[in-house]
Amino acid sequence: MSDRIVDGAITVIARDGLDALSIRRVAAEAGVAIGTVQYHHPTRAELVLAALQRTAQRQQVRAMAAPQAPTIIATLVTRLALLLPHDELSREEAIVWVALAAAAARDPLVGPHQRQLVKKTVSAIEALLERAIQSGELPDGIDTSDLADRIHVVVEGYLLHIAASAGLTSRRVEQQFRATLTALFTHDLGP
Predict the structure, then answer these.
(1) What CATH code is carried by the domain that includes residue 172?
(2) 70-125: per-residue pLDDT in tens?
(3) Which domain holds residue 101?
(4) Domain count, the chain
């Protein structure tokens, strides 16, 4: 039941915006009684955090399901490309992620949770970059922390672009995204 409620919260945020999120709207979207929502998530803040966690979880599951590519860098690019919207559900996730990332800047409850999720993502990227150095795919001496941060900024930028733009084709965006990441790995390894 809680998953259904959180999915309802995600739909409300994606469709109507974070400011429109309420226990009443989530109950209507999930097709449950208001008391049921309150039982599982007593406050709006808890619903927001649950939506953030669920969105991040979905994105992680999708990225980790990527098939192993011939190289570590190709695997990383493929995993990151899977974070981009490619269907209605993943587009909804992108919109929610962007809305909650914006809220994190001013919301003392959302901020720490969102920053922790970002830190976890950047650490995972950095770990793959370090493996790529060990395998010889990337040259020694690269600041993997800085490169991981830059890669994350590219991902967030594309998510914002997609969330704010209707009618973008996922194929075109993915091509641009892959080209941008490839440029980071081949032309922009300096500070």
Answers:
(1) 1.10.357.10
(2) 999 999 999 999 888 888 888 899 899 999 999 999 999 899 999 999 999 999 99
(3) 51-186
(4) 1
Residue 45: count other Cβ atoms within 10 Å of its Cβ: 12
For helices 88-104 and 44-64, the axis angle rounded to 10 degrees is 130
3-class secondary structure, 166: coil
pLDDT tens digit sequence for 140-173? 999 999 999 999 999 999 888 887 876 666 778 8
Distance CA 102, CA 107 (A): 9
Say how far apart CA 157 and CA 19 lie, in whole Å.
22
Asked if residue 8 is part of any domain, the answer here is no
Quick one: 176 exposed, middle or buried, by C-beta within 10 A (0-12, 13-18, 19+)? middle
Q: Is 173 helix (H, G, I), strand (E, B) or coil?
A: helix
Residue 129 C-beta-side C-alpha neighbours within 13 Å:
25
In a domain, 108, yes or no: yes
